[in-house]
Design goal:
The protein is 27% helix and 19% strand.
Length: 291
């Protein structure tokens, strides 16, 4: 599907997945193993894959909670956190329709592709493996994240979802909306990132990054498959390394917020030249692998 700047494609009301150290950039792919209840809810709402027993439960709760005509709205909160859902038996590639993200009158009340916004908390959270019975934690977020389209969704027998996101455009948070089924949502503004839609096609010389990466690998004791990396386009190499290299969350955020690929390349070269602090300090953070 061709991606355009139309409001029919990029939702104004965007569900977000706060995850420390996890970076999504335009054109990049991000696999996620979703197991926390509120983010299962997010995936189910976004893809329309809510299991039959959950849909029945929601209808029953809706009948009990229906507000009088002309007033009231569902209260924010994690009311469904106790329900660990099982994936349905439909084809994992059948992504269904995008469920409405906003209450009536909020931006983004439409159907279309399935979206998740990846965004970092301002204070690093060791949130890769939270206790499933822990209370919801809603830390302050950075104001810039990246919207990803769910290209693949595979429900697992134990209730998890394996999803694959493709980065499309960065966004700026204008305000936070009420929680829905425990997960967070924001009013997203894409206007200052219009060039992101064409970023994967930008011509960028990969040679400076490859040279710097060799020196960085020797300095840090890391090995890379340069035959594979040399086959990538300049932008794919740049954004892939921005995601994969073990920089602290604040530096990852700087890479995300760089004006465009040329500025991101210069920043990446600077960061590789500075190196990465070794483990041992209290501020050291290992990037997440799955959630």
């Amino acid at each position: 599907m061709a991606t355009t700047a139309s409001d029919d494609v990029l939702p104004a009301a965007l569900p977000v997945f706060p995850l420390t150290g996890s970076l999504l950039l335009p054109g990049n792919w991000l696999p996620l193993n979703v197991f926390e209840p509120r983010y299962r809810n997010l995936v189910e709402d976004a893809t329309g894959k809510r299991p039959a027993q959950r849909r029945s439960k929601d209808r029953d709760q809706g009948d009990r909670r229906r507000a009088p005509a002309g007033g009231g709205r569902e209260q924010a909160g994690g009311e469904d956190r106790a329900g660990l859902q099982r994936g349905d038996d439909r084809d994992p590639g059948d992504l269904g329709s995008f469920r409405d993200l906003g209450s009536p009158g909020e931006p983004g009340d439409r159907r279309g592709p399935s979206w998740i916004g990846m965004i970092q908390p301002r204070v690093p959270q060791q949130d890769n493996w939270p206790a499933l019975d822990a209370p919801a934690n809603n830390p302050e977020l950075y104001t810039v994240g990246c919207a990803g389209r769910i290209e693949r969704c595979e429900p697992q027998p134990d209730g998890r979802y394996l999803i694959l996101l493709k980065g499309v455009s960065r966004f700026r948070v204008r305000r936070e909306l009420a929680l829905r089924h425990g997960y967070r949502r924001v009013a997203a503004d894409y206007s200052e990132f219009a060039a992101d839609l064409g970023e994967p096609a930008v011509a960028l010389d990969p040679a400076p990054v490859l040279r710097a990466l060799r020196a960085f690998g020797q300095q840090q004791g890391l090995s890379f498959d340069f035959d594979v990396l040399a086959a990538l386009t300049g932008v794919a190499l740049l954004n892939g390394l921005a995601v994969a290299l073990p920089f602290p969350p604040a530096e990852k955020q700087l890479l995300l917020e760089a004006e465009g690929p040329y500025q991101r390349q210069q920043l990446l070269l600077t960061l590789m030249g500075m190196g990465v602090e070794p483990p041992g300090g209290g501020d050291y953070y290992a990037p997440p692998v799955v959630h």
